[in-house]
Amino acid sequence: MLQPLTIVLLVGCLALGLLAAHHLLRRRLVDDPLILVGAALEVALLVQLVVGLAKSGAIANGAERATFIAYLFTVLLVVPASVVIAVKEKTQWAMAVVLGGAFVVAILVARLQQVWSLNV
Amino acid sequence: MSETTPTTPTPDQSAAADAERPHTGHGFGRVLVAVYGLLALAATGRSILQITEYFDRAPVPFLLSAVAALIYLVATYGLARGDRTSVRLATIALTIELAGVLVVGTWSVVDPAAFPEKTVWSHFGAGYGYVPLLLPIVGLWWIRRTARATAAADEAAPRR
């Protein structure tokens, strides 16, 4: 898709993952910086949704286009869901969930790029 | 988060005890719930797509994807709720899941022609980094561990 956007998203995932790892090691729970980084990543994912939907017509195969659009929406759920789960947990496992969530977002973003490049 | 408080313990012990009370959806359980939720989402999405877009191509794997999706939903819900009935439900779901991934995994290796399309369980979940194979094992271990911890806690404080 848009390569610069994908790179920004992967950097965002890395930032959230590093922050979560830092908090995990320091035994900290969800705090404002973590929420802000998560929110920034989510905004970038929303930008990806808009750009992706606008460009999705370029994928000729209907099933592949449906997959692409499904990924665009699915990836939006991961950050909010992990943060909500993490807020409720008062042990280090909270940060493990956020760390895992950041990893999953990175995989989904890479997968989106893959579906795009294989079909356009 | 306010489920399962059958008796009303005295205020001073209730807050501390509740925080420590073993629960399938707390601590490491949050990770399990998150992973199961994700797999439920992935399997549901995949099965909807497969069944609506190209069901004729391979009905068996596609129906299996749908069954897997349902089981993951039940497991997520059961582990997250964590009361006695929910945990029992989750145990059943995880047992079926383990049996399913073993049977379908073996079947797909022995007779690859039956699985022209990937499912979450074919080839023991290789397409998902073998997470579908490991997850029910880890999940059943966790349920067992939580049950033991609960039993130990009840023994220590039988009046709760």
In short:
The complex is a heterodimer of chains A (120) and B (160). Chain A is mostly helical. Chain A is 84% helix and 0% strand.
Fold and architecture overview:
The complex is a heterodimer of chains A (120) and B (160). Chain A has 120 residues and is an all-alpha fold. Chain A has one domain. Chain A is 84% helix and 0% strand. Chain A has helices spanning 3-25, 32-55, 62-88, 93-119. The longest helix of chain A has 27 residues, at 62-88. The radius of gyration of chain A is 15 Å and the shape is elongated. The mean pLDDT of chain A is 94. The two termini of chain B are 18 Å apart. In chain B, 36% of the residues are buried. Chain B has one domain (24-154). Chain B has helices at residues 11-20, 28-54, 59-81, 84-110, 131-156. Mean pLDDT of chain B is 84; it is low at 1-5 and 7-16. Chain B is mostly helical.
Residues in helices of chain B, as a percent range: over 70%
Count of individual domains of chain A: 1
Spatial separation of the terminal alpha carbons of chain B: 18 Å
Strand tally of chain A: 0
Note the main sheet of chain A: none
